Amino acid sequence: MDFSSTVASQLNAGVILPEGLVIITLMVVLVGDIILGRNASRQLSYVAIAGLLGSVVALYFQWDNSQTIGFLGGFNGDNLSIVFRGTIVLSTAFTILMSIRYIQQSGTALAEFVSILLTATLGAMFLCGANDLVMIFLSLETLSISSYLLTGYTKRDPRSNEAALKYLLIGAASSAIFLYGVSLLYGLSGGEIRLDAIAAQLTDLSSGQSLGVAIALVFAIAGIAFKISAVPFHQWTPDVYEGSPTPVVAFLSVGSKAAGFALAIRLLVTVFGQVTPEWQFIFTALAVLSMILGNVVALAQTSMKRMLAYSSIAQAGFVMIGLVAGSDDGYASMVFYLFIYLFMNLGAFTCVILFSLRTGTDQIAEYSGLYQKDPLLTLALSICLLSLGGIPPLAGFFGKIYLFWVGWQAGLYGLVLLGLVTSVVSIYYYIRVVKMMVVKEPHEMSDTVKNYPPIRWNLPGMRPLQVGLVLSLVATTLAGILSNPLFNLANSSISNSSVFQTASTPVILSESIINRQSLSE
Q1: Among candidates 434, 442, 240, 415, which has minimal Cα distance to 325?
Q2: SS3 call for 353
Q3: Interior angle at CA 386, CA 385 and CA 390, nearest 5
Q4: What angle do CA 29, 259, 114 make, to 5 degrees?
């Protein structure tokens, strides 16, 4: 009895109850598809959404849980992981809503798509709470491989096949680089795999260890930067976004990015706390490059999906300001911005899906005069794009203000000023789309809009799209006006997380090497 109770307490399997509900949902969808066939795929999609909402409820009841460590230290279900896991689960639920009509119209199996998407969600959720190297890598690969499959899911489309191949090749290289970096950590720590144990072993850096930690840091950041689409590790993003099924792009832009930032916070703060100035310098460079290239190149795009791809790169640059700040407020600003980014970005992609389903194109020029034919779609897309640009009083404005305020408090004046300038640039290409939809005279409509089909929400799979559109529109609007509860949520997720309570004191790596070398001489 004592042995079993000890094992149960060490496993603490209840900490992954939200993931367990997603696993059960995945099994129900798989088995239901085999038994009921393709005719029941739409009902199975609703079952998947119900399971994901159940996972959100389980996450809510785990808030401020005193027993957060599970599986012998391999998983940490603290408040930080709860917020990120909740963001990922909600992004998946929205993605399924916008996928039903899109996937069925493409002629591919919906239930299989939902199953792969749930598998990617599992990988992302475990990655947010992973507390040892083995679980980090397994979760990362689960997310990555599922993402490759989703990218090439519409196999009859040559663009989707090309996107999947590019994503696979570049993703495999980044995984190998990341694995080499964490294997160096394993060796330098004397065979430890838990993040806190590795950090304890690396507190006293000798000259040889300092070089090894520096290499491990660079390789680990390369893997993380690929996942969050930071320049210069962004090469896959525009082509994959343009060629992939649009619901997949929506998930990658929010769920995968949130998991990448969750991994970055946990790994950098816990393991690389000794070399904080070094990784802050690297992420400063990544933020500068991402904000400049993402916003400038987006100006020249003619496709909505490619424009949103470069916008996603630029948004990652803004979020990195909070990471570089390195304070509790900085991490809280990241959590807050990623949560509201979920609604405004998925709302924009929902509008792109609706327009492409009705017209068969995603070219920006074809949106000309859309207000005359589809006021709801025009309103929703305008609100989401203006929020992404940071126009008050929408949610994106408060998110950027929080990030810039945190950066200014941390003394990152140049980075904040660059963020302000590039935000102004981003407003131009967002408003260009809004102006094209709203301001154009009837005789200046594009041929696509002139032949716009009648709006029929009663078609199979259109109601979920309508629900997703309205929810994202309401959330994007109200999250800005009623942002105080979200501020409190973000701050609470950081202040009550064990990661930041045990973070070690930063030491400048280069000075450590120089001092030890001078002593040895």
Answers
A1: 415
A2: helix
A3: 120
A4: 15
For residue 509, what pLDDT is reported?
38
Model confidence, pTM? 0.91
Find out whether 140 and 178 touch, Cβ atoms under 8 Å.
yes
The label of the residue with tokens 């990661």 reads 499
Give the distance from CA 147 to its chain's centroid: 13
Tens of pLDDT along 364-381? 888 888 888 888 899 999
Residue 55 corresponds to which tokens in the numbers above?
Answer: 């996972």
What range does the domain containing 379 cover? 3-520
**Tokens, residue 463:** 């109601």
> How big is the chain by its Cα radius of gyration, in Å?
23
**Residues 450-506 pLDDT 10s:** 888 888 888 878 888 889 899 998 988 888 788 888 888 888 888 877 777 655 434
Least Cα distance to 354 among 337, 373, 336, 326 occurs for 373
Amino acid at 9: S
Q: Which two structure tokens, joined as six digits, stand for 397?
A: 């404005």
Sign of the C-alpha dihedral computed for residues 207, 225, 161 and 95 taken in this order: positive
Mean pLDDT over the full length of the chain: 87
Q: How is residue 132 annotated by DSSP?
A: B
Q: Which residue type is seen at 345?
A: N
Residue 8 tokens read as 């149960």
Residues near 429 by beta carbon (within 8 Å), at least 6 away in sequence: 295, 298, 299, 301, 307
Count of Cβ atoms closer than 10 Å to residue 437 Cβ: 24
pLDDT of 520 higher than 60:
no
Residue of 432, 475, 173, 456 lying closest to 339 (CA atoms): 475
Percentages of the chain per state (helix, strand, coil), in multiples of 5: 80, 0, 20
Structure tokens at 352: 């792109």
Distances (CA, A) of 282 to 35, 182, 373: 52, 18, 48
- Structural domains counted in the chain: 1
Number of Cβ within 10 Å of residue 466's Cβ equals 15
